Amino acid sequence: MGQALKVRRRPETRDLPLPQYMSAHAAGLDLYAANDEPVTIAPGDVKLVPTGLFVEIPPGCEGQVRARSGLALRYGLLVANAPGTIDADYRGEVQVILANCSREPFTISRGMRFAQLVINRFERVEVQEVEELSATARGSGGFGHTGH
Questions:
Q1: Number of folded domains in the chain?
Q2: Alpha-carbon distance 58 to 87, whole Å?
Q3: d(Cα 58, Cα 73) in Å, to the nearest integer?
Q4: Tens digit of pLDDT for each residue in 91-144?
């Protein structure tokens, strides 16, 4: 195991599981909805869903909030700002911005596993303004130029 993810919860959410890996090699910790009332997301709509959690992400890491693949495939439920980033110095409640890109309303009930949290290391860079960038075989080609 790596570093610890320190978690504090709202007292009224102690009935919900802490984030957890659902398999031995899972990269993401499943997050559970901590909404008091069901949250229905209409087709094309976006809603904020609380987790009831406050986290302390280790320095040099970020939390990435992602959709659960099954909910995305079956119900068109996506994280609107995917991946949502939680910085190591953020101490507010973790909430997830969900979008429904299906043709049917979808309801998030309390305790539902609705998103996942992946903890990743990152590197900060120094921004340098230059007159020229190094040349590559790809150059400025983008948006599918390397194949279909």
A1: 1
A2: 9
A3: 32
A4: 999 999 999 999 999 999 999 999 999 999 999 999 999 999 999 988 888 777
Going by C-alpha positions, the residue among 40, 44, 125, 117 that lies closest to residue 84 is 117
Rounded CA-CA distance 54/25 in Å is 25
Q: Is residue 146 part of a domain?
A: no
Give dist(CA 119, CA 30) in Å, integer.
12
Beta-carbon contacts of 80 under 8 Å, excluding residues fewer than 6 positions away, are 46, 97, 98, 99
For the question of whether the overall pTM of this predicted structure is more than 0.85, the answer is yes
| Domain of 102, in residue numbers | 6-121
Residue 108 in any domain: the answer is yes
CA angle 123, 31, 25 (to 5 degrees): 65
Residue 79: HSE in the Cβ half-sphere, 13 Å Cα cutoff: 20
| CATH code, 47 | 2.70.40.10
Is residue 60 situated within a structural domain? Answer: yes
